[in-house]
Design goal:
Belongs to the class-I aminoacyl-tRNA synthetase family. Glutamate--tRNA ligase type 1 subfamily. The protein is mainly alpha-helical. It contains 19 helices and 12 strands. The protein has 2 domains: 240 residues, 3-Layer(aba) Sandwich (Rossmann fold); 102 residues, Arc Repressor Mutant, subunit A. Helix 16 packs across helix 18. It is elongated, with a radius of gyration of 32 Å. 36% of the residues are buried.
Length: 480
């Protein structure tokens, strides 16, 4: 197999409008690699003013499930990558697939093969014993239809070319060649009359008007077989772009041991925003100069296949979370509050949560950290004090808190600026650094050693709640 280079302009020349498709198998969640494939297809279609379609390849009835279909649409919807038309369900089109198989038989491009599974197994074992590659050599390939036995099960096989080579000008992999002798006479219709994946994909792509097939490079070998069907039907050949798979940070193929694989896990468990995952997947194997933050409109304007790399990309969760932190800081505060509230326990005032967002999201990298950082706002008294925070509440510190409470009790201007002036003046009066006051104050107000700025905390909690929490530490509750 040899490779050269592709050209995005050539890929679209003379082919308008562009039609792409994302065609997942509903056997589980929307895989992170599948989400990137959907993204690339969506962007390519948008960039060229074309159409992006979704097809559910549910011909594997044993493994295809309704929950998996729902999970795929849920993930695509979250990323705003649903198709431009109603989705196509492959299994429902089985009669059309069989119709094409019959046309290929009629045209002499396919044949009925009556070899039994036992005969094939015997020939495969013989090839292994003789240490030679196993190739289907069916005596039924050129048999006269008049010799076809009645009432005997058969499959329909394509007559793959045996001489020369098949060449694909792949827009990512370059020029790829395969000797036709390596392509078997593959099955397109099973003995029960159901189509195989190889046939269904080709028929659906043709009927949907797909002009560009952008998919993972694990499908590259399939393209050579699929071209046999396309050429047998004298259909237009799509432009192929086989994108390298995503690997883990260690360079190995991405698997469960590298962490979450489903889009839903990044949303639900890790608290990632859709725009962050969109941006990260875009740059996973494609780039635009040194641009790191690329919004949806820029992505549509800039995206091309020519700049998709040939090497596998490495998924780096730390980079994704750093990117997510950027989008958290850019996000609307009310929207963030609505996303964070369900991650918190107890009653939550979303309006207060939204007001707190400007100071909460400064260092947060995900929605879970926002929820954790906001927990003090809605904590009920008596406050649960973390061990490290409790260590700050010494007898001397409680004395300082009593003085702070007294100084704040008659404050008429409860703003960050005014409160800062009061507490700083108190620190100077007592000859202490501001930290000596802020540390026990933070412990009393939040029960933690980390929080937003202490004056922001006072304002967010309000005068009544702030003084009540401070007083609770100045005069500890009697043991029950």
């Amino acid at each position: 197999m040899a490779s050269g280079s592709g050209n995005d302009t050539a890929a679209t020349e003379g082919r308008t409008p562009v039609v792409t498709r994302f065609a997942p198998s509903p056997t589980g969640y929307l895989h992170i690699g599948g989400a990137r494939t959907a993204l690339f297809n969506w962007l390519f279609a948008r960039h060229h003013g074309g159409k992006y379609l979704v097809r559910i390849e549910d011909t594997d009835r044993a493994r295809s499930t309704e929950p998996a279909i729902e999970a795929i649409f849920d993930g695509l919807g979250w990323l705003d990558l649903l198709g431009d038309a109603e989705p196509v369900f492959q299994f429902a089109r089985s009669p059309r697939h069989a119709e094409v198989a019959a046309a290929l038989l009629e045209g002499g491009h396919a044949y009925r093969c009556y070899l039994s599974s036992e005969e094939l197994a015997g020939r495969r074992e013989a090839a292994q014993a003789e240490r030679r590659p196993f190739r289907i050599e069916s005596e039924w390939r050129d048999a006269d239809p008049g010799t076809w036995p009645a009432e005997t099960p058969y499959v329909v096989r394509m007559k793959a070319p045996r001489e020369g080579e098949t060449v694909i000008e792949d827009q990512v992999q370059g020029t790829v060649r395969v000797a036709n002798a390596e392509i078997d006479d593959f099955v397109i219709l099973r003995s029960d009359g159901t189509p195989t994946y190889m046939l269904a994909v080709v028929v659906d792509d043709h009927d949907m008007g797909v002009t560009h097939v952008i998919r993972g490079d694990d499908h590259l070998n399939n393209a050579f077989r699929q071209l046999c069907i396309i050429r047998g039907m004298a259909w237009p050949e799509p432009v192929y772009a086989h994108v390298p798979l995503i690997h883990g940070s260690d360079g190995a193929k991405l698997s469960k041991r590298h962490g979450a694989l489903g889009v839903d896990a990044y949303r639900d468990e890790m608290g990632v925003l859709p725009e962050a995952l969109f941006n990260y997947l875009l740059r996973l194997g494609w780039g635009h100069g040194d641009d790191e933050f690329i919004n949806r409109e820029q992505a549509i304007e800039w995206f091309d296949i020519a700049h998709v790399g040939k090497s596998p990309s490495r998924f780096d969760l730390a980079k994704l979370l750093n990117l997510n932190g950027h989008y958290l800081r850019e996000a609307d505060d009310a929207r963030l509050a609505s996303l964070v509230a369900p991650r918190m326990t107890g009653a939550v005032d979303e309006a207060l949560l939204a007001r707190a967002m400007p100071v909460l999201k400064v260092r947060a990298k995900n929605l879970n950290e926002l929820a954790s950082g906001a927990a003090f706002l809605f904590a009920q008294r008596p406050l649960t004090i973390e061990e490290k925070a409790a260590a700050l509440l010494t007898d001397d510190a409680r004395g300082l808190l009593a003085g702070i409470a007294e100084a704040l009790r008659d404050a008429t201007d409860w703003t960050t600026e005014a409160l800062e002036v009061r507490v700083k003046a108190l620190a100077e009066e007592w000859g202490l650094g501001l930290g000596k006051l802020a540390q026990p104050l933070r412990a009393a107000l939040t029960g933690q050693t980390t929080s937003p700025g202490i004056f922001d905390v006072l304002v967010l909690l309000g005068r009544g709640e702030s003084l009540a929490r401070i007083d609770a530490q100045v005069i500890p509750a009697e043991p029950a």
